Amino acid sequence: MAAELECAETDDGRTVYIDRGMVERGAQGPFFVVFVTEDRATRWGYFCGNCNSLDTAMDTMGRVECNVCGNIRKPDEWDAAHE
């Protein structure tokens, strides 16, 4: 059974849905997957569990960073050459 979704509002007034059952590990706290709709059909981004912010960014390597507190998830394919 899927976890219940939590509604949140973006800075531009859009309603998005946080799934606290879908977690990505961050350096300072977890990142939770955020969806556009309740049916989980389209991902919107991530919610930072460290500072409770939707202001996150992902680069092409898969690194997720919170633009508020600096919480970071390392890239999917990370090695020393990527730094």
Q: Could you describe the 3D structure shown?
A:
By secondary structure, this protein is an all-beta fold. It has one domain (5-77). It is 0% helix and 41% strand. The chain is built from no helices and seven strands. It has strands at 5-9, 15-24, 31-35, 43-48, 56-58, 64-66, 72-73. The strands form two sheets. Strands 1-2-3-4 form a four-stranded antiparallel beta sheet, with no helix packed on it. A three-stranded antiparallel beta sheet has the order 5-6-7, with no helix packed on it. A hairpin with a 5-residue loop joins strand 1 and strand 2. The radius of gyration is 13 Å and the shape is globular. The mean pLDDT is 91.
Quickly list its features.
single chain; mainly beta; four-stranded antiparallel beta sheet; three-stranded antiparallel beta sheet; 0% helix
Mean pLDDT: 91
> What count of helical segments does DSSP give?
0
- What sort of overall outline do the alpha carbons produce when their principal axes are compared? globular
Q: What's the count of strands?
A: 7
Low-confidence stretches: none
Order of helices and strands: EEEEEEE
Short description:
Pfam families: DUF5816. This protein has 83 residues and is an all-beta fold.
Helix/strand layout:
Blueprint: E1 5-9, E2 15-24, E3 31-35, E4 43-48, E5 56-58, E6 64-66, E7 72-73
Antiparallel strand pairs: 1-2, 2-3, 3-4, 5-6, 6-7
